[in-house]
Amino acid sequence: MAGRICLIKSVLNSLPLYYLSIFTMPKGITKAISSINRCFLWKGILNSHGICKVAWHKVIQSKPLGGLGLGFIHSKNLALMFKWLWNLDKGVVGGWQELIL
């Protein structure tokens, strides 16, 4: 279980980071990614039937709140988009700012 949590945090949640930082992720994609993460955490494979031991909204909570710290992918999407906008507003982006604006 600990290995699966480590893989979800380091690989499965980091794969869509570029997309998350630029575009608003559709809810269907968010649900699909969450479903893949859930299935991998509880069962180890995608298409098997099993019992989820803890509600997913509790699992994705931060560690101080009793969760595993996986995070909600929609919140990550909003945070990364606002970071991009903040950097554009403050002029931190550099050469990319001229391309976008």
Characterise the protein shown here.
The protein is mainly alpha-helical. The protein has helices spanning 2-12, 17-22, 27-42, 56-59, 73-90, 95-100. Helix 1 runs antiparallel to helix 3 (27-42). The chain is elongated. The N and C termini lie far apart (46 Å). The relative contact order is 0.14.
Q: From the alpha-carbon coordinates, what is the Rg to the nearest angstrom?
A: 16 Å
Q: Decide which structural class fits the backbone.
A: mainly alpha
Give the N-terminus to C-terminus distance in angstroms. Answer: 46 Å
Largest sheet: none
Q: Total number of β-strand segments?
A: 0
Structure described in brief:
The chain has helices spanning 2-12, 17-22, 27-42, 56-59, 73-90, 95-100.
Topology of this protein?
Blueprint: H1 2-12, H2 17-22, H3 27-42, H4 56-59, H5 73-90, H6 95-100
What features would you highlight for this structure?
6 helices; 60% helix; 101 residues; mainly alpha; elongated
